[in-house]
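The instructor's notes for this session suggest beginning with a concrete chain rather than abstract definitions. Hand out the sequence below and ask the class to guess, before any prediction is shown, which regions might be ordered.
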Amino acid sequence: MERYNDAVERIREIPEEKAVPETFRDYFITCAEFIIKIDDFIKETENIDLSGYSFTEDNDAIPGRSIDLRKWNQVLYEDMVRDYDHSYLNPAYAEKKLSPYGSILSVLLLEIENLIQSAYEKDLYDITNVLETFIQVYCLFTSDYRDFSDNADAQSLPEVKTLKDVLYSYAYDYSMDFLKKQMDRQYLCSDTYTKKVLSSHDFKNVDDIYLYGAYISETAYKTAEFAASLSDEEVDRMAYTWYKGFKDGFLIQGKPYDKKSLIEFRFHIGFERVVKRAAEYFKEDGYDFTVPVRSAHFLTRSPQGAALLYESPNRQMDYDHCYDLSLVMGDRIASRMLEETDQIFRTYDSEIKRYAGPVVMETFGEPEFEPVEKFEKLSFNDHQKEVYGRYRSELQNTVYKYIDAEERSFTIIAWPLPTIGHDFKEIFRETIAINTLSSEAYMPVQARIIDALDKADYVIVKGRGNDTDMKVMLHPLTDPDKQSNFENCLSDVNIPLGEVFTSPLLTGTEGVLNVKSVFIDGIQFHDLRIVFENGRVTDYSCKNFEDPDASKALIRRVIFGEKENLPIGEFAIGTNTLAYKMIEKYKIGARMPILIAEKTGPHFAVGDTCYSFMEEMHLFNPDGKELIAKDNECSILRKTDPDKAYFAVHTDITIPYHELDSIEAVTSHGEHISIISGGRFVLEGTEVLNAPLDD
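After discussion, reveal the predicted structure:
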């Protein structure tokens, strides 16, 4: 507390000082004034545990104390939301005003403004570390400027490298703290601030969502309003489907559900009623939960983003700062973070064995967003791309060293947001119907598709209105009566049901995958085109930017995870034509998540196979046939050259039915078995899937 008070006292003096050159004075005043806001908030909420704060009918008062958290949310996030074009958070503006330090100082300001969550949690240690770093940077400019004022021959400003060194030291010194805070929130059953907020309120009062400290958009507020209006029966149906999908994933894969007792919830702000009801179902099974939140620090924020509790105040800002890690990324810090991650896992001892996996809720219907590429924003150089790619792969290996893949699972479900349009309520209730489709009804239909595919040596997929022409090689079955290449995917780990999928052979798999419009991780890709030879990516492009290199960079970041020459890890045929009908009915195809979109046509995934780290498990379809297509030429290297076996990437790319012409299974005798022709299912026993398409 003393360190914090000393830092704040010093920072409160900055707005009145004229100790830095005029060019940089406004920037440092902006930083100082925001820190003063944070301190004012901390003082106003002093001695109050905000996680248990209770709103009364007048919306803001508790006995003896009144706090307007809605106003504070607007005040604290104002700089991120309003006039971003003229904010130092914008690296283009910062570079224009503060060159050559603009992009670096922009990162520092974001690091400061991301302290909002720590202010709600009263984590003064975390706040103080950032404030002291800010003071150190301020002093660099102050001392050099004063020296220049007295001695015209002296250097007037610090070198860029000196400024980078300060932020490097900050990241290096506190990396253990940043990592431990993130990992504890995910893997330990402790009463974190966010978990206490979720547990202490019923969220029928919509303003309860302001207690998180996260940015609350109009979308989040309307989502919470809608969720509050749902009947208990509707909430229960949504929650039970989610819970049952996770539990069924364990049972279907023969994993030890009863040995575990901890899950993590990942969800969008506004769906708290559903999360709380699901938690009650898990509690009946002896399970507790965690609620991890997005990292506030550039060192531990993933360039790919993360499906954690986070509402973006400004998606362009998030895009502009997705590579802030490049300030420090290198062999030394990557090695340190891997060692620290391993050390933290070791401290968990037997506690980590409780962890069963993530229970994930995705959303769809966000306003379309096409990022503007700015040359001023930070990015990885070639060496950093290599280092980071290797770091991600080794990090994944470290996680699976302590969390046995054969004893963990997951489930993912998705719900629409009010921003999807005026048909939101109708779309929401149709999504409930889609997410709760009967596995018993789909099981035999998908089994017919699998029976046909299991006769084939390879599959040919051709598009309509695009250049898609793919040849997909399948594993040979040594005992067709007892083996299968394709998994019959029902309503468990990936909700909704509706696909059959496999991990294909790479050798001989080749062709062009071309989709005119597809959303991946919230980014709409235009005319995405990927070329494969022997199952590996050899070329790729899209038309998101006029500059082909910028478009390639977007693909590498979002789809490839900064890897090159990735293999095909999955080939699947989606069968959920009811979901496709809803998409076409409301014209929302461009706004669907891959979770649902992948069920509305064939899809390919680049990166790891469907069964990474689970290759030795014996998995079976409902008909009793064992799944044998769990390896490819890359993943099998886990036995001889583990560093080349996995990529820590698995990104799905779907061809919707209206961009699909045909899918044919080709046998060793040259027989062509038609699964889909003219965008319709033609295989005997699957015609029922055409009803929604023809309706």
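Then share the key points. Residues 160-187 form the longest helix (28 residues). The chain has 21 helices and 21 strands.
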